[in-house]
Amino acid sequence: MSHAVDVPEHFIPARIERIEQTTPLIKVFTLAADPERFHARAGQWLDLVILRGGEPVVGGYSVVSAPSDDGRLQLAIKYADHHEATHHLHTVSQVGDEVLVTAGQGGFCFEPTMGREVVLLGAGIGVTPLISILRLIHREAPDVHAHLVYSVAAQREVLFPDELAVLGEAPNIDVTLTVTREAEDWRGHTGRISHALLESLDLSRDALYYYCGSREFIEDMTELLTQWGIPEQQLKYEKWW
Fold first, then answer.
1. pTM higher than 0.90
2. Which of 27-36, 92-101, 114-123, 191-200 is predicted least confidently?
3. In this structure, is residue 205 part of a structural domain?
4. For residue 220, what is the enclosing H or E element?
5. Which domain holds residue 59?
6. Are residues 73 and 21 in the same domain?
7. Model pLDDT, residue 9
8. What DSSP string describes 86-107?
9. Of 115, 172, 210, 233, whose CB has the highest number of CB atoms within 10 Å?
C-alpha cells in the first residue's frame, strides 16, 4: 500500500482477513487492526479509507461486530454503484488488502450500564449497528433484555439469519422479523414496522429505543414512537445521509 498520500494520524492500518457474500447485496468484511489502537463501542461507526493510486477514497460504515480487545472488527456493507468506496470494496477488494480505519465514532452506542431494557428497530442495512448492540448484550449482559424488530423487503435479505435465530433463543433476547414484500413461503409478520406490530409484541414503554437508517425511516420511527407515548429521552437514533 502506498503511503505517498497524506493520511491523518488517527487512521489505523487494517488488513482484510475475510470477505463473505451473506445476502444477494451484502458482503461482510472481517478486518484486523492493532488492538492497542482500534476500539469501538457497540453501535458506533467508523471511516474506512482505501488508498487507490495515491488518492484516498473514504466511506463511513457501522461496525456490526461486538466490541472486542483483539483489534478485529466486522463490517456488513450493501452494494452501491454510486458510492465509490463501497463499489471498490465489493468489486475490487480482496483478502489480504490493506485499508485504513478510524476507531469507533458517534454517540449512537450502548453499554450495559445504560439500561435494563432495549428495543432495537431496524430496516434493511440500517440493522448493522443494532446487531453489534445485540451481540454485546448476548455476550456480556444477561441481565439486559433486548428485542430486535427487523424489517426487510424479502426473507433472503435478512443479515445473519442463522445467528439471529440462535440469539432469539436466549432468555433475555427476542427477535422479530417482518417482510414488506408479499411472499407465499413467508409465514411471519408482514409489512413495515407499525403501531400494530409494536402493540402485538408487548414491548416495554420504559425501554431505550434504538433505531438507525435513512432519514425517512428515522422520521417515521420518531413519529411512531412519540405517538406511542415513548419520551424523547428514551429515543436513540442515528441518521444515514
1. yes
2. 191-200
3. yes
4. helix 215-227
5. 12-101
6. yes
7. 78
8. HHHHHHT--TT-EEEEPPPBSS
9. 210
